[in-house]
Amino acid sequence: MYYKNTYKELNEIQRGFLYKRDSNYIEACLDLFNTSYDIRQTSLEYTTRKKFHKDVKRLLTKFGVSEININKLIHLLHEDINRVDLYVNVKGFEKGFYDYTVINALESLALDRMGINELYELKYLYEYETNDEEVMELKGMAYKKIKYSDQITNEHKRLVQVFSKNKIRPMVMGLNDLLDTQLILIDGEIKDEQCDLNSEQLREIYVNTKILLFKYVERAFFAAYWKSINQRVLSRYK
Q: Can you tell me the distance from the alpha carbon of 216 to that of 220, in angstroms, rounded to the nearest whole number?
């Protein structure tokens, strides 16, 4: 694997894109890797935000936070989570782009099942649902390779740790200041909703939010990786 950028430059691109909200880093993020395939040609799927927001909503509901306040926090995190999603998709796609062992194995399976002309016509291969047992076995093997890679796991842990410290922790630990007091009816009287969270509760919310984010980072990375594997096979017949 050959990077166009130095390690220091890659770190600066990551920091600028994820933490500075500088739009100038978006193209740099998409152009991180020296591949012959332009990642802009593919449609990366951003699933982290919706799933993460759904689980955060469920988590905060357990602590009695009203829906309007939950939506307020989710709105504040919206852009930052999207950036993580894009960054992880790019990294996962790049990982699959160079995994020739799995690319070649999938190509061999595909050629056993269809002709070259059929591969030429296909827009998608096996990146979505398939009942083919051998393909599913290969996908499972690839998943375990990614899942149990210490290098990839540590990269994801560092990403989640630094991102959470910079973006999520300030919002969660200052959640009481973000909450809008709601008027509710209690025993026939209109009173202020009591929704202040103590430090232990805020800490629990923060820790669980990091766990959720790590889970979705792993899923998004593998989804992009597997999509890249499939598209690399098809690109050999275009």
A: 6
